[in-house]
Amino acid sequence: MFDLTSLREATRQIRPSIPATAQYAWPRLADRLGCEVWVKHENHAPTGAFKVRGGLLYVQSLLQRNPGVRGLVTATRGNHGQSLALAARSVGLPLIIVVPQGNAQEKNAAMRAMGAQLIEYGRDFDEARQEAARQAQATGFEAVPAFHPDLIRGVATYALELLEAVQGLDTVYVPIGMGSGICGLIRTRDLLGLDTEIVGVVSTHADAFAQSFEQGRIVTTQTALTFADGIACRMPSPEAFEIVQQGAARIVRVSDTEIEQAIRIFHEDTHNTAEGAGAAGLAALVQERGRQQGRKVAVILSGANMDREAYARLLLG
What does the buried/exposed string (b/e) look like for 111-125 if buried means 16 or more CB atoms within 10 Å of the residue's CB? Predict the structure, then answer.
């Protein structure tokens, strides 16, 4: 993994391109939920999501290890792809991105706008990931995984910002997709010697991580049918699972209906846009508000990249 020195070095490396994001305690959320609620605003990052931190650090570190890289290939539902597209463009590397069929059109457009070649393949992220592996073999490009130590260290810079800025947090709620966000948060908490409990959040319709956590072994699901595409994963990474199993307090399942309500709450109480995965942490806090009364809690608003028409429908309820 990484130590505190290398985490601070990661912050130094990405800072010219990625300013620190804000964390605010929102009064209306506190009134609504009966606890002090801090929001870490990764929706304010340059690509509208926390993943950009990891993508930039990954590409910088890859070129240091292997200056002869000819190009990159990855699979994504959008935010990981945007992070790599921005990073690849900054160093002049071609990038192929495989997304599932029916992926969010505005995320697709953003990746193309940053110069990526987009391929639509498969019914979900995991099938797109298999196609990305084939593309890497055919082109000789570097295959970029969704979970890697440099990706974790990069995204962990948001955890360092939050945990150093807000003292005495009792609990942090964080969505789980492939696991880089929660793993970076767990590692950073441990490096700082804090006792903050970290609660992972998954969809009831994509709960492979929750099942794995409860059973103590990797469990995969046949489908991941949630509109919250950032957490629509059905095959947990063994490396991520090990970290989550050791360091998370629990994993909470939230329904699409609960996520939709959390999106509306973010809009009403903070006037911030949240995509499905970005609102999952708040949905879990709403579900568990009884156990958090009077406590100091944070939620990770991990991203805001949601198609306009879908967002408009959700706001109308």
Answer: beebebebbebbebb
Least confident of 56-60, 207-211, 233-237: 233-237
Indicate the pTM of the whole model. 0.94
Which candidate, 303, 312, 311, 310, places its Cα nearest to that of 80? 303
Residue 91 CA to residue 290 CA, distance in Å, equals 49
Instruction: Report the C-alpha gap between 122 and 114 in whole angstroms.
Output: 23
Q: In CATH, what number does 4-50+149-316 get? A: 3.40.50.1100
Q: CA nearest 56: which of 87, 99, 25, 81?
A: 87
Q: In 3-state terms, the chain is what percent helix, strand and coil (to 5)?
A: 50, 15, 35
Q: Where are the domains of the chain?
A: 4-50+149-316, 52-143
| pLDDT tens digits for range 145-192 | 989 999 999 999 999 999 999 999 999 999 999 999 999 999 999 999
Fold of 52-143: Rossmann fold (3.40.50)
What is the rounded distance in angstroms from the CA atom of residue 293 to the CA atom of residue 61?
43
**Cα separation of 123 and 76, whole Å?**
12
